[in-house]
Amino acid sequence: MKIVKGQIIKAKLENYKKFHDIEGIIDEVFENGSYLDGTWYAVMVTGGDTKSKLVEMLASERIVIVIPERNIIEVVENENA
């Protein structure tokens, strides 16, 4: 399945070799850019592992992070549908 802007996803965020579960909305898709190999996604964090202070802060501030395609676990729903 092709992941596009507006879809809600579950993913793993790696921070200092520790993984955090996140949920978020795809904000932008980057494919084979000049500085990123493969497909990367800008994700606006909306939730996830509530035990993680990092995830809690990212979700409360609606911060956009960039993650590689390999870290996406599943597509929850398509917000545009």
Strand order of the largest sheet: 4-3-2-1-5
The number of helical segments is 1
End-to-end span in angstroms? Answer: 15 Å
SSE succession: EEEHEE
Query: What number is the mean pLDDT?
Result: 90
Helix content: 10-25%
Q: What number of domains? A: 1
The radius of gyration computed from the alpha-carbon positions, rounded to a whole number of angstroms, is: 12 Å
Computed structural class: mainly beta
Can you summarize the main beta sheet?
Answer: 5 strands, antiparallel
Task: Report the uncertain regions.
Answer: none
Task: Describe this structure in a few short sentences.
This protein is mainly beta and 81 residues long. 11% of the residues lie in helices and 56% in strands.
Structural account:
The chain is built from 1 helix and 5 strands; from the N terminus they run βββαββ. The protein is mainly beta and 81 residues long. The longest helix has 9 residues, at 53-61. The protein starts with 6 loop residues before the first strand and ends with a strand.
Keywords:
1 helix; globular; 81 residues; mainly beta
Topology:
Elements: E1 7-15, E2 18-31, E3 39-48, H1 53-61, E4 64-68, E5 72-78
Antiparallel strand pairs: 1-2, 1-5, 2-3, 3-4
